[in-house]
Specification:
The protein has two domains: 14-247, Type I PLP-dependent aspartate aminotransferase-like (Major domain) (Aspartate Aminotransferase, domain 2), CATH 3.40.640.10; 250-378, Aspartate Aminotransferase, domain 1 (Alpha-Beta Complex), CATH 3.90.1150.10. Helix content is 39%, strand content 12%. It contains 14 helices and twelve strands. The protein has helices at 14-24, 32-45, 56-66, 83-90, 113-116, 136-146, 200-207, 213-217, 237-247, 250-273, 303-313, 329-334, 342-348, 362-378; strands at residues 49-53, 74-78, 95-99, 121-124, 149-153, 161-162, 173-177, 190-194, 287-288, 295-297, 336-337, 351-353. The strands form three sheets. An eight-stranded mixed β-sheet has the order 1-8-7-5-4-2-3-11, sandwiched between helices. A two-stranded antiparallel ribbon has the order 6-9. The protein has a two-stranded antiparallel sheet with strand order 10-12. Helix 10 (250-273) packs parallel to helix 14 (362-378). The radius of gyration is 21 Å and the shape is globular. The two termini are 26 Å apart. 49% of the residues are buried. The model has no long low-confidence stretch (mean pLDDT 97).
Amino acid sequence: MSTPFNKPFTIGAELDYITDAVARGHLSGDGHYTKLCHRWLEQTLGAKRALLTHSCTAALEMAAMLCDIRPGDEVIMPSYTFVSTANAFVLRGGVPVFVDIRRDTLNLDENLIETAITPKTKAIVPVHYAGVACEMDTIMAIAQRHGLMVVEDAAQAVLSDYKGRRPGAIGDLGCLSFHETKNVISGEGGALLVSNPQLVERAEIIREKGTNRSKFFRGEVDKYTWVDIGSSFLPSELIGAFLWAQLEHAEAIITQRRRLCTVYREALQDLADAGRLLLPQPEPEGVSGNGHMFYLFTRTAAERPALLAHLKAAGAHAVFHYVPLHASPAGRRYGRAAGPLPVTEDLAERLVRLPLYYGLGEDEARRVAAAVRGFFDERQ
């Protein structure tokens, strides 16, 4: 049996809602289902305003506009993240300043942020890796001391928990992803969460091509016009319909993924205890992840490609993750490292992600774990 790394899925009334959206005769943005998604995100996550976008990348680009990033402004972020985290700010002329990550969570090391701040620093972008929240209390305190914006890249963190709060709705702005590789999916799709009330109106304007069209539809102005920069960030109502069906079952999706992470950990713990591989460290106190991914570390960088090849031959499609941005051609061209990044460079070369998706059976997950075990048994 072949186990893919990821498999898109339906869980409820996705197709029925898409059919209903067509029947309602509203297929462009901000229809019935998009509004349901907005309400759910605001009520469940606690943001002042939620706005669906056609991707998390789009939400990050909106966030860069809302931060008023200008050429030369610096934005602190981890190097171990997806390109969109940096690219959104580079498009506005910003300079990503890469800071090392924590070894326990692979999140931005909050203890290194202040030394990276310069007079040009405009914002901090914590990325909640694998759905495990960054140390947000410390990050928010640093931002407040220095007058900086906080944009959470919560692409992987839908329904994670940080001390009773939801990642994505803690900073000024938060960006979510509903890409088919995430927990809750709509194929492509994302959302911008606005928790700073001073940014709500401008966020609506930027999302609507720089017009005050949203105010017009609410009857607050008698006509709408061009008032600011912006672009077309609205997703189709078909995306909203699919997503709404997923959000109705979001808790069940998260519960299943967390269970699969537990299955993997239980099956591989003795190998970790024996020093054959490393497993993710326990989540920090007060933090609860959402089962977005299960990863392990090989002992050496040279061991990883051999493990991936072994798993592929066994029908288990595991993958590595990001190439650190500070080491990429564009990262060197447009950004800079605040200092040495030894943890990023070490862990990025040894990390392996195992298959994980809603619909992956526990027995199938155990077979993947058995294939991992087989690799290490052969190397004794």
